[in-house]
Amino acid sequence: MFLRRPLRELLFDPAAAATFFWLGGVAGAAVMLLTSHWPRDAVVTTLVVMAIALTATLVRRLVGERQPAWTLQVDAALATGLVSVVLAVAPYGYNAFAIFYVWIALYSSLYFTRRQTVLQIVLVAGAYALVLANGPAVDRPYASWLAVVGTCATFAGLTSTLVNVLRTTARQDSLTGVANRRVFDERLAEEIERARRSRVPLSVIALDVDDFKGVNDHRGHLAGDRTLVRLVEGWRACLRRATDFLARLGGDEFAAIVLDADADQVRQLVERLGAVTADGATASVGTATWDGAESAEDLFRRADAAMFEAKAVRKARRAP
């Protein structure tokens, strides 16, 4: 139920890094071997570069996720250097190797933040400028530089925008705008680890709309959606601290994570959340505070059980 790997795994994919180097090495070697008129020194240098790329592939496959995420940025910088070396020794007319810079830009935009991607493109721009200034003669070097760097920047910008849209979609409930179940699971696991280190209180609050099926049956699903949105707005007004976190788990089930709040503060917060209404609809609220040892699943299970107890009490009070 609870995910162990954080969503930022989109920024860290060792398998993709390995594939990146493998494809680059094989493609580069193929281009060189299938063409002629390469000086011996250029052939040796290029083969060494390809061997480094394939070695990086092996290292990535063997070490995998044990490497920290920042090593991917080193990979991209290393790839930029390797491509630049090949361009610098390649005979005149083989400037097509510059297309590998575009690979690097796309790779960066898929797995890095926007700022990191910009830094990688700046590195590509500088490296290619050095190649054009000191490598084999190229017709209209300024035009070549603009074409390659412009293509890198354009492709990276488009890909980065698409990735951000997909990342937002993966993290956010489309109706209410709060985080979804996946993000809640990740956040709870992370906050438990943080609470374990810092020894600060951590509480989970479970919320479930009362008789939401009746709302949908009598008023329609669109009215039910509006009710959920208004309830979330009310809950957000109660969860005012920057560390308070609210998520929709599915249907009419929601949960909040509250950090560094004592028992009295949590009790008052639960009362305020339970007092929120929208179009006559209410919600039952239950809470549990982490005991310092239990898992995320067990903590949420206790909060959920407390919520069902509160729901039973509400039903009993409404019964004639």
- What oligomerization state is this entry in? single chain
Strand order of the largest sheet: 2-3-1-4
Order of helices and strands: HHHHHHHEHHEEHEH
Contiguous low-pLDDT stretches (5 residues minimum) are 1-12
Largest sheet: 4 strands, antiparallel
Kindly report how far apart the N and C termini lie. Answer: 39 Å
The average pLDDT value, as a whole number, equals: 83
Helix content: 55-70%
- Our estimate of the beta-strand percent is 5-15%
Q: Please report the total strand number as a whole number.
A: 4
Number of domains: 2
Shape: elongated
Give the radius of gyration. Answer: 28 Å
Classification by helices and strands: alpha+beta
Written overview of the protein:
The chain is of the alpha+beta class. The chain is about 65% helix and about 10% strand. It has eleven helices and four strands, in the order αααααααβααββαβα. The chain has helices at about 15-35, 40-65, 70-90, 100-110, 115-135, 140-170, 180-200, 210-220, 220-240, 265-275, 295-320; strands at about 200-210, 245-250, 255-260, 285-290. Strand 2 (about 245-250) and strand 3 form a beta hairpin. Helix 3 packs parallel to helix 5 (about 115-135) and helix 5 runs antiparallel to helix 6 (about 140-170).
